Amino acid sequence: MKHHIVVLGAGYAGAYAAGNLARGLSPADTAITVVNAEPDFVERLRLHQLAAGRTLASKKLADVFAGTAIGLRVARVTALDPDRRTVTVADSGGGAELGYDTLLYTLGSHVADHGVAGVREHAFNVAARPSALRLRDRLDALGTAGKALIVGDGLTGIETATELAESRPGLSVTLLARGELGARLSLRARGHLRRACTRLGVTVVEHAEVTAVEADRVRCADGSVHACDATVWAAGFTVGPIAAAGGLDVTADGRIIVDRVMRSVSHEDVYAAGDSVHAIGDNGLPMPMSCGSAGYTARQAVNAIMGRLTGGRIDETALAYSGNHITLGRRDAILQSVDAQARATPRYVGGRAAALVKEGINRVSLWTVSHPTFGLPTRTRRTTQEQPVAGAGGVSA
């Protein structure tokens, strides 16, 4: 009987991992199923651009996985039972239960409302394609006028505010920052960010703690009220409850606790990658939720799964956090490097050169995910009942 690998989620981490597992493991004795709620691969890094009005070509997952032995199940994951090694999914035809031998959990994250009243009812976001399209429709309805309020001054909030301001010049854009704008950036990079906001006409309100979102305004802890036609919530991300409800060991915020090779510390047949995982980086700090972290953790999970199944050495992939890449519209960006403790260094790159680098990163990320058959080996590795052995630069499962 074939060893069944189930991958939950086909974002940057899941789609990349599934493609690499299909490249490296023989279909003669392994079967891979990917479960994803949507039929398309979603470029989450570009959803703020989609909301601003840009056209993004969608990639059908069926086309992405064509030519591989990967089976695609378009369905929503509703439950996980790691003791029975089953996953419950739901689609238009109803519910079903999938069994697995090895599970890779990459369900990602969604917007965190932090308990603020009215966020779910009244705010838009760019965390998923449907919500980004709803925001675009709302902005289209406003025509050449209107006021958009962006709550949150993290990377998503900054990128959304600057993209909307540049792409929709008639729109009034205000960015509400909980603290100082760009506090995680170096002094010079913060200056660059402020100049970009000024150039694009983005109004910045600092030290604004939002306590309620209403249909046409937001209220702050200091008593101030900010009127708007569309509130965009970009105040952080969180994970869903499925892993915790299933009994996996998770952090207080629900992320799966893993060892160095992305294997669940509570269930040996479960691996995790991307935003869903609580992984400790090479600097001793938790890896941040980001596309870069998704790539590193997915690569490590693939190495671990393949090593365990084939009896080979499990090489340790670098778990690095090199810095932040922030787009400021289409022709400007900031590349901020960080030190070993994830603190901003004085060195940064800004302007058109930084924008081209960020665009290159986006393109490479999409190409890597959407070409899983590239370099498909003529000889894949067969599974074995033997356990992998530790080697130089590797660890035992």
Automatic annotation (TrEMBL):
GTP-binding in keyword set: no
Entry-linked Gene3D superfamilies: 3.50.50.100
Pfam family name, one: Pyr_redox_2
Molecular function, one GO term: NADH dehydrogenase activity
Entry-linked InterPro entries: FAD/NAD-bd_sf, FAD/NAD-binding_dom, NDH-2
Assigned keywords, A-Z: FAD, Flavoprotein, NAD, Oxidoreductase
FAD/NAD(P)-binding domain boundaries: 4-283
Highest taxon above the source species: Bacteria
Statement: the UniProt record of this protein carries the keyword NAD: yes
Annotated region (Disordered), positions in chain: 377-397
Family in the record: Belongs to the NADH dehydrogenase family.
Protein's name according to its UniProt entry: NADH dehydrogenase FAD-containing subunit
Species of provenance: Phytomonospora endophytica
